[in-house]
Write a structure and sequence with these properties.
The protein is elongated and about 60 Å long. It is built from 6 helices and 17 strands. By secondary structure, it is of the alpha+beta class. The chain has 2 domains: 177 residues, no CATH class; 94 residues, Immunoglobulin-like, CATH 2.60.40. The two termini are 14 Å apart. A 5-stranded mixed beta sheet has the order 13-14-11-10-17, with helices on one face. It has a 4-stranded mixed beta sheet with strand order 6-7-8-9.
């Protein structure tokens, strides 16, 4: 399962197995205004052209509001189109740990995207038009509007399905507003993944992902019978959590429960702490 922050690194084009010191030179990513508001200064990233942005999707229990999540985007010829394509096709399981949901019907793709002045026009496939619920359609438009507003000059969006506007705001276009966005609250872990050496082999590394870049000041990991797993702890790329390389060979299986005791602070100074239980997932073999 790709957790949310694995998606963030996938968009950045980074190898989530790689240690920070293997990336070579580092520099701070350029942050959009929305990223700065919800997550603070961007973390130091592998040198290159990286942009820290905020993605937006509706709350699972309130489609009238959207919640932000961090994305780190590598330079590409069409970053706006790439982001929209990723957003409309995101796996619901990716954003479920954050209490968010994907409002776009399964199979929705982007047919075209173009900017004209301060307006971006997004034309989606017919699957989007099959969604008749007013609130869900509204959530689709809000998600795209708040995402695209981070690009220079963009103030309005118009979303259509095969050329037919998905109008829900009393007009053809939508202008994002801050009252439509819910604060992400304090930082928290969203999942734990492991990397095994061969089939049924030794656990080489256990990664704990957080919902945003954080500094982790307290961290303990226990197996399902309460044994503390000792080992070397390293930061995740983009400060998206920590990785533990076990000193011994703990008996850990995919799907078993692991317990995380943690305390973390984000770049805005928000502090989260607690004890969380997760099912250990297998680290994906590729980020592409």
């Amino acid at each position: 399962m790709y957790f949310l922050l694995a998606l963030a690194l996938l968009l950045a084009g980074c190898d989530i197995r790689k240690d920070l010191d293997e990336f070579g030179s580092m520099s701070r990513a350029h942050a959009s205004s929305a990223y700065l508001v919800y997550f603070g200064p961007a973390p130091v990233t592998p040198s290159g052209s990286y942009r820290a942005m905020a993605g937006f999707l509706p709350l699972a229990n309130d489609f009238s509001k959207v919640g932000p999540f961090p994305l780190f985007i590598a330079s590409s010829p069409e970053p706006m189109l790439r982001l929209v394509q990723r957003l409309v096709s995101i796996d619901p399981g990716v954003i479920e740990p954050l209490g968010l949901t994907n409002p776009f019907p399964h199979g929705t793709v982007v047919l075209s995207l173009r900017q004209q002045g301060d307006l971006v026009m997004v034309d989606l496939s017919r699957q989007a038009a099959r969604q008749k619920n007013f609130l869900v359609r509204r959530a689709m438009i809000m998600s795209l509007g708040h995402l695209l507003e981070q690009f220079p000059g963009v103030k309005r969006v118009m979303v259509s399905a095969e050329g037919v506007p998905l109008t829900t705001f009393g007009g053809m276009t939508f202008r994002p507003g801050s009252l439509q966005v819910v604060s992400p609250g304090p930082p928290r872990p969203v999942g734990v993944v492991g990397s095994w050496s061969g089939s049924g082999g030794k656990v080489e590394e256990i990664a704990v992902w957080f919902d945003r870049p954080v500094t982790v000041s307290d961290f303990h990991l226990r197996d399902d019978v309460g044994h503390v797993i000792i080992g070397e702890i390293k930061r995740q790329p983009f400060d998206l959590g920590v990785r533990l390389q076990p000193a011994s060979s703990p008996v850990l299986r995919e799907g078993m429960r692991v317990h995380v005791v943690w305390k973390a602070v984000d770049a805005l100074g928000a502090v989260g702490q607690g004890e969380s239980t997760f099912h250990l997932r297998h680290l994906p073999t590729t980020t592409h």
